[in-house]
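for the recovery benchmark. tokens below, seq after
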């Protein structure tokens, strides 16, 4: 087959390397066919499917010659396409192609008859296929002991073949007709169920006695396994015999595995590998290993097996050691926040401060931020922007309506369908141990017989405790110190105080009209154009139209409804564009045509109309959707000194009205009223929009002013709005919501606003254009309020014992000085 072929045949040696007298007639160099997952033995036949290009060339060349070739089993089956001499063992088998068949789809099906063991001594050529110089190996002469062992081996082979379905009966007959011990060993090695590695070892073994001994051991093991299987089947009770076939097979397999000591299946081995790669802390690793040992002892058909498997899956998938790298570029963070949100400078500054601290002190603990504000102001989207600015994964979970403590801490594994709590589930979804985790609507947590979830959150949100958070399902400590928690709430008073104490509260008060206009132009309009399939060249909304939508069609602190109304406008424009496909002119909605798109205005704004009246005061109120004005009315009627309050007033507001009445009665002389005015008259105080519940202390000075005006007959400046709490002695106490209330006064057309003196510092939050249009009066006592609000001065000065040391010098708040303080 090659030019340097030795026609005398290859050198024939025995196990000790001594040359044998008999010399088989084989070429010195033969082509070598690599086999995958198969071993060819002498005096046996092996079918093989040849499809690789080099192997096909080898077969075609051999078929054109003497049909001789050698086979060798690959050490690694994956190297079949690029096999080299290093991938093959030193010992193989020389054989002859007995039959062959060319397949329609390509390739050749061959049957190779093994002839002799050979050792590959040299590799003269590897292209286009492997060729090796060979020396024939002869088995040692069998001893009398081998002859005796043949009978034992044949008996065991007969027992195994009788009980085993994979050995045909003709094979037993063929084995019984073999007289040579070496040939019998090769025949059985080729036909019984053994691994490829063991078969290769038997091929390389030249000692016939050892080959037979190895085969005898294997047959005894097979025979024992079959006996155990039979015994297990016979020992089953009548009830077990009635079980389905699948259940029976599983039990037999369990018994066999226990006898062999092979309790670790592929699935458990895979779980062990995943546990090793999960980078768990020591305590979690011990828990996982305990559960793995327990899983090995549980039958797969048992319900406990599924429970244990699910627990291991959760334990593995918690991101114990996975972290995302923080982006500590402060300029990048500020740009991301500015791109996503308009205004909110205080919150943006706080996030940049957090990044700066993290940059200087990476090991520091993350704060617990809580965004409080009305719906639609961007609390949730702000959390997403924070995650993007930091380069962290973001995960959100809504806590609204959660009443079960197990939602936070997880369920005990003793319960059917137990799961970890939402915190652990959030970590799993995030895929890292340092995500931005948003706990939405913490003010809407509930509590009932199943526990108090807000109490469970105390450990989660306490930086001093959450380094070892305990989930009832996982039952190992989980470090939450790297998680940046962001909570949101609509009303801060509804958050339990212990929980609120662990948070850094940042209030989002809502947007003014100019801010809403800017947000609509930068974010809402482009987003709704895209959502409705329009381009900026096809549709637009005029600036005055946008202002009218804000004033007449939405009443909110945020911009959620504003975006809905803008979307409604664009949907009608999209209908026109889709109907008239040739339309190329841009449709811009003017303010005058807005009602054709959105219908009549949906919001009625209280505005200052009419002249100054007796007993009617313009008050200011805070609502979840922003500030508003209230017209507080008071009137006297004949009666017996009763006080009537109407307008769906809450308890606090009713008490403010009673305090205002007491103050007015204490000022009977100063307001010029009859000494017995409250004995011969009933007083009725009413706050319009009676269907809307109202409460809070900030209407105290407005009620007192309305009562004094009704009693004294002096009119009140309608364009002067006021807010503040009043005491029995006439002191004006501070209130909240100054920004929203002042903006409401400005929107309604007021000219002046009376505020408590202690609220003067809150004006820094009021937009500058609002401060420029209003005059502010800061009062410490009710007398100052009356001096500013009434159109005429009172008949007498206040009594000295009821006035602070400053006395009525507070009325020094002449208009020039008041304007300067504003």
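predicted aa per position
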């Amino acid at each position: 087959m090659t030019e340097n072929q030795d026609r005398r045949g290859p050198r024939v040696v025995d196990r000790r390397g001594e040359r044998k007298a008999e010399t088989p007639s084989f070429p010195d160099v033969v082509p070598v066919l690599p086999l995958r997952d198969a071993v060819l033995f002498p005096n046996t036949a092996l079918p093989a499917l040849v499809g690789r290009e080099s192997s096909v060339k080898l077969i075609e060349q051999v078929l054109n010659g003497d049909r001789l070739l050698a086979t060798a089993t690959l050490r690694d089956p994956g190297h079949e396409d690029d096999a080299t001499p290093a991938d093959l063992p030193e010992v193989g088998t020389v054989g002859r192609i007995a039959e062959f068949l060319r397949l329609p789809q390509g390739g050749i099906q061959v049957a190779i008859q093994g002839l002799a063991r050979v050792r590959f001594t040299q590799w003269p050529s590897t292209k286009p296929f492997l060729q090796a110089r060979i020396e024939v190996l002869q088995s040692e002469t069998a001893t009398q002991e081998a002859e005796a062992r043949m009978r034992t081996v044949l008996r065991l082979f007969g027992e195994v073949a009788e009980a085993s379905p994979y050995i045909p009966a003709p094979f037993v007959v063929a084995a019984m007709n073999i007289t040579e011990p070496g040939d019998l060993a090769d025949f059985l090695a080729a036909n019984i169920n053994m691994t490829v590695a063991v078969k290769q070892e038997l091929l390389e073994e030249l000692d016939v006695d050892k080959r037979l001994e190895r085969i005898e051991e294997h047959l005894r093991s097979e025979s024992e396994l079959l006996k155990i299987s039979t015994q297990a089947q016979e020992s089953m009770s009548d009830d077990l015999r009635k079980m389905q076939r699948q259940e029976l097979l599983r039990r037999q397999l369990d018994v066999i595995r226990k006898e062999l000591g092979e309790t670790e299946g592929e699935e458990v081995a895979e779980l062990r590998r995943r546990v090793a790669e999960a980078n768990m802390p020591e305590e979690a690793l011990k828990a996982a290993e305990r559960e793995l040992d327990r899983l090995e002892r549980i039958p797969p058909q048992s319900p406990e097996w599924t429970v244990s498997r699910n627990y291991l899956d959760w334990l593995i998938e918690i991101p114990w050691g996975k972290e995302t790298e923080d982006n500590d570029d402060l300029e990048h963070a500020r740009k991301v926040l500015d791109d996503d949100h308009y205004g909110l400078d205080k919150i943006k500054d706080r996030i940049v401060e957090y990044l700066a601290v993290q940059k200087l002190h990476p090991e520091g603990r993350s704060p617990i931020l809580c965004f409080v504000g009305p719906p639609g102001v961007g609390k949730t989207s702000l959390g997403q922007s924070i995650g993007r600015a930091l380069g962290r994964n973001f995960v959100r979970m809504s806590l609204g309506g959660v009443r079960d403590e197990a939602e936070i801490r997880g369920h005990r594994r003793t319960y059917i369908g137990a799961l970890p709590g939402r915190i652990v589930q959030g970590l799993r979804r995030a895929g890292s141990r340092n995500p931005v985790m948003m706990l939405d609507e913490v003010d809407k947590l509930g509590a009932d017989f199943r526990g108090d979830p807000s109490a469970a959150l105390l450990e989660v949100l306490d930086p001093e405790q959450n380094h070892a958070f305990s989930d009832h399902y996982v039952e190992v400590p989980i470090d939450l110190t790297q998680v940046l928690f962001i909570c949101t709430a609509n009303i801060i008073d509804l958050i339990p105080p212990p929980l609120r104490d662990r948070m850094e509260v940042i209030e989002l008060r809502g947007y003014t009209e100019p801010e809403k206009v800017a947000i609509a132009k930068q974010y809402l309009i482009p987003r709704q154009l895209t959502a409705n399939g329009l381009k900026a060249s096809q549709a637009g909304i005029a600036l005055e139209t946008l202002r009218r939508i804000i004033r007449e069609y939405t009443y909110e602190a945020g911009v959620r409804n504003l975006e809905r109304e803008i979307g409604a406008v664009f949907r009608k424009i999209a209908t026109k564009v889709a109907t008239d496909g040739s339309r190329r002119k841009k449709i811009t909605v003017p303010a005058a045509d807005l009602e054709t798109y959105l219908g009549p205005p949906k919001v009625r704004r209280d505005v200052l109309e009419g002249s100054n009246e007796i007993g009617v005061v313009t008050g200011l109120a805070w609502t979840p959707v922003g500030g508003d004005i209230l017209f507080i009315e008071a009137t006297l009627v004949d009666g017996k000194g009763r006080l009537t309050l109407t307008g769906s007033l809450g308890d606090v507001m009713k008490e403010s009205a009673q305090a205002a009445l007491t103050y007015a009665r204490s000022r009977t002389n100063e307001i010029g009223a009859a000494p017995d005015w409250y004995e011969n008259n009933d007083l009725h105080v009413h706050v319009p929009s009676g269907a809307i519940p109202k409460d809070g202390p900030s209407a105290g000075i407005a009620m007192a002013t309305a009562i004094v005006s009704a009693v004294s007959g002096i009119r009140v400046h309608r364009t002067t709005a006021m807010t503040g709490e009043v005491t029995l002695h006439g002191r004006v106490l501070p209130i909240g919501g100054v920004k929203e209330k002042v903006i409401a006064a400005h929107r309604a057309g007021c000219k002046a606003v009376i505020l408590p003196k202690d609220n003067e510092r809150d004006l820094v939050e009021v937009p500058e254009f609002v401060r420029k249009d209003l005059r502010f009066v800061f009062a410490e006592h009710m007398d100052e309020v009356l001096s500013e609000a009434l159109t005429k001065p009172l008949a007498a000065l206040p009594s000295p014992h009821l006035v602070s040391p400053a006395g009525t010098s507070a009325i020094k708040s002449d208009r020039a000085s008041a304007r300067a303080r504003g």
